[in-house]
Specification:
CATH class: Alpha Beta
CATH topology: UDP-N-acetylmuramoyl-L-alanine:D-glutamate ligase
Structural class: alpha/beta
Strand content: 25-35%
Largest sheet: 9 strands, mixed
Distance between the termini: 26 Å
Number of helices: 7
CATH superfamily: Ribokinase
Shape: globular
CATH architecture: 3-Layer(aba) Sandwich
Radius of gyration: 18 Å
Number of strands: 13
Order of helices and strands: EEEHEHEEEEHEHEHEEEHH
Length: 287
């Protein structure tokens, strides 16, 4: 690494998020007036890219956005955060995925309804090796599996570190994981036949992943590498909103791993993610 701005490439899902802050969890047939709201571009790769950019890096999102009228809101948000977009289907006319999210003020917990990228999967040849020019780290969230696997293979050939956001298992994920240098899974990451965190770690080790970490909210991060295994406590914080905390963790990790050790990068990312839970929405921490 030289003195230039580090560049991260973030491959996967972009959504438009409508986020509401409510005093209590909604029940059946219940209406409630929100106490606050925000609208922003979202999705694991997209939130991670914005976090990476806010820490001082240059970020590019590789995703499907297209030309539906509401994509203007997504593009405007990315431009405001100076995040570049490599649109895999620039002439796509259908609506991008839209998420409706309710955050409960008393707990900071969120309820999300959305649709992922399963209806718009792009073939591997939709992107060229040019996308990796001047890139220092790649994050793949698995929502565009063919593209993710292709970019992971290209990055591996160029010795560019590949980070995988293992938020949940997705069909074909093994094609990406086999190329990964770092896999950060969540409590919801269950590869086939893996009902426990220990089984998931064993699965990743068998695939040859050299650096593995598993997060679980406020519980300690479990990590494994050739240098050793252990647990890492996460910072205690006053939780206002947990939305996007995992995505922000991944973006921060991508930034720190270019400068620090694996464990130190996990610790730094945990601090950034914890601070993100102290404010409503996915942006106020980053302002």
């Amino acid at each position: 690494m030289n003195d230039r701005q580090p560049h991260g490439l973030f491959v996967g899902l972009t959504t438009l998020d409508f986020v509401y802050l409510a005093n209590q969890t909604l029940g059946a047939n219940q209406k409630q007036v929100a106490t606050d709201y925000t609208v922003a571009a979202g999705g694991p790769a997209t939130n991670a890219a914005i976090a990476f950019r806010s820490l001082g890096g240059a970020a590019t999102v590789v995703s499907v956005v297209g030309q539906h009228p509401i994509t203007q809101l997504i593009r405007a948000d990315l431009q405001a955060w100076q995040v570049d977009l490599w649109d895999l289907l620039p002439h796509h006319q259908a609506s991008p995925p839209v998420s409706s999210i309710v955050v409960t003020a008393t707990t900071g917990e969120r309820a999300v309804i959305s649709i992922n990228a399963s209806k718009v999967q792009v073939e591997a040849d939709a992107v060229s090796a040019e996308v990796l020019n001047e890139v220092d780290v790649v994050l793949i969230d698995g929502h565009q599996m063919a593209i993710g696997a292709a970019i992971a293979r290209l990055a591996k050939a160029r010795s560019i570190p590949v980070v995988v956001d293992g938020g949940s298992w997705k069909p074909g994920f093994e094609t990406v994981l086999q190329q990964a240098d770092y896999v950060i899974g969540s409590a919801n990451f269950h590869p086939p036949g893996c009902a426990t965190q220990e089984a998931a770690i064993s699965y990743l080790k068998q695939l040859g992943v050299p650096f593995i970490a598993m997060t679980n909210g406020s519980a300690p991060i479990v990590y494994h590498s050739a240098a050793g295994s252990g647990q890492l406590s996460v910072p205690t914080t006053k939780v206002v909103d947990t939305l996007g905390a995992g995505d922000i963790f991944h973006g921060a990790f991508c930034y720190f791993i270019l400068q620090h050790s694996f464990v130190d990068s996990l610790a730094g990312a945990a601090k950034v993610a914890a601070r993100s839970c102290e404010s409503f929405g996915t942006r106020q921490l980053l302002l």
